């Protein structure tokens, strides 16, 4: 009984859906002229998507049918400076000459009209009733450069056809410019990614070398070890290929970093780790945790008497991992941190490079939900934390560090 | 009384460890120790701890006790599924970087529709697997203490929800690893006492008490078409293990594909050891507790009642308390693991708006994950524990097995093919499950085909997936070659895996 009821409900639902579609399909279609406008706009909208990749042979092939519908001529061709991109319509025996037809308009950048003799050129047209007795050639432009030409072949070139061809060419040019815009936007994003590559702070390089130098006379063996650590650290920081590493690798590099810092601070710098081993294989952008530790060392301890404690933690949280760095130092003004994360503070300190850069990279890779969270107040220490999804499309840890 | 104490201790320990879970992570100042990944051995124990559910703790012994030697396949199948997992899935799945099955579907097929379908199936399998856990918790407590059945279910539900929403013990590998050894101890210690008593009684043979039919295979004691049922069961168990959400997320904890393989290999040894014991209980039950036969509830409870009949005070009571504790630990750990997996998938893929992929969304997901099976079990859906678990396996074998096996080993799989196969296999198996659980079909071939559906639903799902994929070659994933390199090439090789 119940199955029958459910079936009945389903049938009614389907009928409703069909009825609604029917009603929406048959609105008042308007006058003849309005319908013509709709048709033209519709054809134009069909031609637009293939052209959004720019003037490519594939896009041109797919768009040209619609362009011929717009112009209503026997044949239409699209060419760029070096080749015929697409041809649609009758008179295929003129196809190989299309590039020559386009050359004039491409060179001059102005619409030109060719007569039958100019279409035939050196070789006479063998077809008696060839429909292509004239051609209107309109240049396609992107910005200030001419990138190709639209050729409309017809029986007799009329002023209307010249105007229509010019307008369609203008419309195609707009689409090509939009494609160009798309490409430059992609390039801008890529450049931003490159600019956001992990950075190590110049202060750290300088301070480390100074600390190593101080050991060269008194404890050459230690100085040598520190130099090797420094070499390993820079190799990790400057490595190319792969944006991501495992949390385990990042931790190992933080160890190198802390060894170098401890050469400067000695016992004043204490570190505690609280790491859930489950999250060690998680992929993180490399040098995403180290700047936070560096920030904790610099702003948490340096300004404070008697040194301090840095806690570095990682915990499992369902499909995400939670990573945090905490110090018991002097803290900071929350308003300042807010500005740094918003990218507004061109801080005098390198702090802005570290936090802002990590925050931007995390958001870019994982989305805006995954930025840094900073909890701090003057004199109350600082805790910086962030979440990383265990799986994100396209995010894979590179090969382990040597 | 001692059973109450055992249950309370297990619950308190579970909650306590869950609350303090973080402290069990490595707190140290030694980077070398802190950045060492979980070793395959620990990981394998953790998988074992989460995998051995209450259903297999009590249910397998109950089934063998009631039906006879055919049911030994349960013991074998629950373990042997990991052989298939090891050979076909473990390392490629780890290398893919997927954390859950929907992740894998997205990596391999780049399709949101397949991802969502997979998510729905994960939730379905999770619910089906959780149902017998909650039923079993009620049963165990009723048997041990005489409390009404809903009390045990309610306790289990509350502990699991509290535990999972408060942060979850399941994240802590070492706790789950400990659970395995707890369960092994709980099942192994009492049997030593029981075997001593049995030996003292002159070692009576179960065959002599139970009769030939119980001992000889395919005797069809109680069920029609034993041969079909056996093969179908084996297919479900062998190919369903790879689709269990709470097992797969543990592969992610391994550093690389090789470690994943080593982990699964160790799991086989650990589970093999554990599943030696339920048949022993079943055989002894046949000798000493033959009067408990012929009701699904008392079959599953046999193991808890056996020590009381064989041993005097106080040993019988203590052994029963230990078994109850083990069973309850099994219910809790498996349910927690499943709930976390299902909640993750719910909040990640199926919830909308502000619940999507947020902490509060995860809590809502955990509530939903528990609510449905808990309601069903309180409403009185009663089937044998191991039977219901097998249906979850059958559903997994008819959906995720084709997706994983074809996705990993055949570049021709297309997203339409995968979708068609998942939906076909999922619908067929779910209908079979629904009809079986509701008890609509009785006896004969229909009951056999619906009660053990894997033997026909799985081949159909495979055939649909392959057929539709061959018919729609233009929906192949672009760059499938690179994806295959990622899945199959060892991590140490410097190859193009599609990273920029």
Portion in beta strands of chain B: under 5%
Structural class of chain A: alpha+beta
* Helix-strand category of chain B: mainly alpha
Series of H and E elements of chain B: HEHHHHHHHHHHHHHHHHHHHHHH
Biggest interface and its residues per chain?
A: A-B, 40 and 46 residues
Number of strands of chain B: 1
Distance between the termini of chain B: 64 Å
CA-based shape of chain A? elongated
Main sheet record of chain A = 5 strands, antiparallel
* CATH fourth-tier homologous superfamily of chain B: Sodium/glucose cotransporter
CATH topology (level 3) name of chain B: Sodium/glucose cotransporter
Strands across the major sheet of chain A, in which order? 2-1-5-4-3
Please state the average pLDDT score of chain A: 82
Please tell me how large the radius of gyration of chain B is.
22 Å
Low-confidence stretches of chain A: none
Q: What is the CATH topology of the largest domain in chain A?
A: Heat Shock Protein 90
Shape of chain B: globular
The radius of gyration over CA of chain A amounts to 34 Å
- Largest sheet composition of chain B: none
Helix content of chain A: 40-55%
Q: Can you tell me the residue ranges of chain B where pLDDT is under 50 for at least 5 consecutive residues? A: none
GO cellular component, one term (chain B): plasma membrane
Family (chain B): Belongs to the sodium:solute symporter (SSF) (TC 2.A.21) family.
Transmembrane segments (chain B): 6-25, 46-66, 72-93, 113-130, 150-168, 180-198, 231-252, 264-284, 318-346, 358-379, 391-410, 417-441, 453-471
Organism (chain B): Kineosporia babensis
């Amino acid at each position: 009984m119940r199955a029958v009821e459910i079936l009945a409900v389903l049938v009614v639902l389907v009928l409703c859906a069909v009825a609604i579609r029917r009603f929406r399909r048959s609105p008042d279609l308007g006058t003849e002229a309005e319908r013509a406008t709709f048709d033209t706009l519709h054809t134009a909208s069909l031609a637009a998507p293939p052209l959004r990749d720019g003037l490519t042979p594939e896009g041109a092939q797919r768009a040209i049918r619609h362009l011929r519908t717009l112009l209503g001529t026997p044949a239409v061709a699209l060419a760029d400076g070096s080749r015929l991109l697409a041809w649609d319509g009758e008179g295929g025996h003129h196809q190989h000459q299309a590039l020559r037809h386009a050359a004039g308009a491409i060179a001059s950048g102005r619409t030109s009209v060719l007569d039958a003799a100019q279409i035939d050129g050196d070789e006479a047209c063998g077809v008696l009733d060839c429909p292509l007795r004239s051609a209107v050639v309109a240049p396609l432009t992107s910005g200030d450069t001419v990138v190709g030409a639209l050729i409309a072949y017809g029986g007799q070139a009329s002023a209307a056809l010249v105007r229509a061809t010019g307008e369609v060419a203008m419309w195609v040019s707009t689409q090509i410019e939009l494609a160009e815009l798309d490409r430059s936007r992609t390039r801008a994003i890529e450049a931003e990614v490159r600019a956001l590559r992990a950075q190590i702070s110049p202060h750290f390089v300088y301070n480390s070398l100074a600390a190593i130098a101080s050991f060269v006379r008194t404890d050459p063996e230690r100085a040598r070890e520190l130099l090797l650590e420094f070499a390993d650290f820079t190799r990790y920081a400057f490595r190319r290929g792969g944006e991501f590493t495992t949390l385990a690798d990042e931790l190992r590099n933080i160890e190198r970093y802390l060894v170098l810092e401890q050469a400067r601070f000695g016992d004043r710098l204490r570190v505690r780790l609280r790491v859930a081993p489950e999250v060690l294989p998680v992929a993180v952008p490399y040098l995403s945790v180290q700047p936070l530790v560096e920030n904790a060392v610099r702003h948490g301890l340096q300004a404070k008497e008697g040194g301090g404690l840095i806690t570095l933690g990682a915990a499992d949280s369902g499909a995400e991992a939670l990573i945090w760095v905490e110090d018991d130092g002097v803290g900071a003004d929350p308003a300042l941190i807010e500005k740094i994360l918003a990218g507004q503070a061109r801080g005098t300190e390198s702090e802005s490079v570290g936090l802002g850069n990590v925050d931007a990279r995390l958001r870019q890779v994982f989305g805006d939900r995954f930025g840094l969270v900073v909890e701090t107040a003057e004199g109350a220490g600082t805790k910086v934390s962030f979440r990383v999804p265990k799986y994100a499309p396209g995010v894979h840890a590179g090969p382990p560090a040597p | 009384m001692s059973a109450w104490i055992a249950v309370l201790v297990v619950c308190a320990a579970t909650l306590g460890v869950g609350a303090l879970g973080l402290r069990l992570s490595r707190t140290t100042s030694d980077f070398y120790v802190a950045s060492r990944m979980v070793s395959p051995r620990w990981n394998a124990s953790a998988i074992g701890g989460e995998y051995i559910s209450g259903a297999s703790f009590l249910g397998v012994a109950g089934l063998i006790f009631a039906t006879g030697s055919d049911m030994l396949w349960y013991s074998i199948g629950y373990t042997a599924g990991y052989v298939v997992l090891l050979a076909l899935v473990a390392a490629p799945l780890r290398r893919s970087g997927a954390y859950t099955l929907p992740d894998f579907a997205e990596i391999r097929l780049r399709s949101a529709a397949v991802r969502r379908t997979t998510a729905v199936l994960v939730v379905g399998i999770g619910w089906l697997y959780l149902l017998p856990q909650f039923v079993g918790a009620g049963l165990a407590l009723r048997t041990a203490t005489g409390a009404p059945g809903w009390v045990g279910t309610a306790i289990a539900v509350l502990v699991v929800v509290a535990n999972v929403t408060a942060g979850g013990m399941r994240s802590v590998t070492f706790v789950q690893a400990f659970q395995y050894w707890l369960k092994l101890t709980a099942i192994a210690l009492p049997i030593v006492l029981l075997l001593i008593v049995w030996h003292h009684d002159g070692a009576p043979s179960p065959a002599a008490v139970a009769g030939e039919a119980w001992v000889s295979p395919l005797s069809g004691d109680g069920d029609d078409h034993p041969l079909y049922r056996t093969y179908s069961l084996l297919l479900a168990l062998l190919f369903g293990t790879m689709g269990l959400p709470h097992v797969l997320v543990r592969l992610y904890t391994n550093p690389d594909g090789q470690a994943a393989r080593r982990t699964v290999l160790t799991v086989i040894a650990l589970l093999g050891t554990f599943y030696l014991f339920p048949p022993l209980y079943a055989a002894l039950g046949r000798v000493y507790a033959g009067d408990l036969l012929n009701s699904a509830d008392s079959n599953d409870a046999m193991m808890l009642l056996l020590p009381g009949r064989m041993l005097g005070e106080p040993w019988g009571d203590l052994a029963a308390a230990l078994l109850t504790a083990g069973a309850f630990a099994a219910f809790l750990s498996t349910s927690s693991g499943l709930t976390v997996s299902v909640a993750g998938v719910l909040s990640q893929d199926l919830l909308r708006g502000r619940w999507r992929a947020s902490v509060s969304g995860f809590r809502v997901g955990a509530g939903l994950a528990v609510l449905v099976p808990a309601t069903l079990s309180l409403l009185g859906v009663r089937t044998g524990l191991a039977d219901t678990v097998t249906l979850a396996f059958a559903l997994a074998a008819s959906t995720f097995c084709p997706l994983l096996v074809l996705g990993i080993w055949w570049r021709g799989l297309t997203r339409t093919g995968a979708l068609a196969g998942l939906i076909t296999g999922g619908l067929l198996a779910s209908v079979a499950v629904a009809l079986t659980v509701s008890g609509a079909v009785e006896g004969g071939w229909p009951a056999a085909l619906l009660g053990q559906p894997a033997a026909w639903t799985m081949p159909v799902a495979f055939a649909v997936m392959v057929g539709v994929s061959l018919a729609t070659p233009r929906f192949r994933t672009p760059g499938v070659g690179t994806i295959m390199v990622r899945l199959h090439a060892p991590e140490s090789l410097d190859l193009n895996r599609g990273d920029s």
